[in-house]
Amino acid sequence: MLPAAQAPLYEIKANLFKALAHPARIRILELLAAAPDTAAPVSYLLAETGLEASHLSQHLATLRRHKVVTSVRTANAVTYRLAHPKIAELLSIARTFLLDNLADSNEQLRLARELPAAHLPGPAL
């Protein structure tokens, strides 16, 4: 059981990972991290993700609710940016982790292909 004083801290961390727990939200965050001035209008996010406007809106609301992105409205345009520069670093670390795991899988697949073929008993074809 967590000490009562620490429980809210772990809940905040868990909420961060909940915000990251969808492929579309990861894509949105990667787009924001790569944006030229680290901010992007909704129209850009719509074009790049291919999401319907309502779905993009829901994902952005989740990211805002968990304080992962911030938004600024200017007239009719809304621009989004990462709430903290370390989020881009977190995405980079996640990508490195993914690539390392894929490299391990490819190495195991390569080794498996080098195993001698099994000769199963049965009728000759």
What does this structure look like?
It is a single chain. Helices cover 59% and strands 12% of the residues. The longest helix is centred in the last third of the chain and has 28 residues. The protein has a single domain, classed as Winged helix-like DNA-binding domain superfamily/Winged helix DNA-binding domain (Arc Repressor Mutant, subunit A), CATH 1.10.10.10. It has 125 residues and is an alpha+beta fold. The chain has a 3-stranded antiparallel sheet with strand order 1-3-2. The radius of gyration is 22 Å and the shape is extended.
* Rg over CA atoms: 22 Å
Number of helices: 5
Domain count, please report it: 1
Outline: extended
Report the span from N to C terminus: 63 Å
Oligomer: single chain
Q: What profile does the largest beta sheet have?
A: 3 strands, antiparallel
Provide the β-strand percentage band. Answer: 5-15%
> What is the tally of beta strands?
3
Give the rounded overall mean pLDDT. 87
Enumerate the spans where pLDDT stays under 50 for 5 or more consecutive residues. none
CATH superfamily: Winged helix-like DNA-binding domain superfamily/Winged helix DNA-binding domain
The fold-level CATH name is Arc Repressor Mutant, subunit A
Features:
alpha+beta; 3-stranded antiparallel β-sheet
Reconstruct the topology from this structure.
Layout: H1 7-19, H2 23-34, E1 39-41, H3 42-49, H4 53-65, E2 69-74, E3 77-82, H5 86-113
Antiparallel strand pairs: 1-3, 2-3
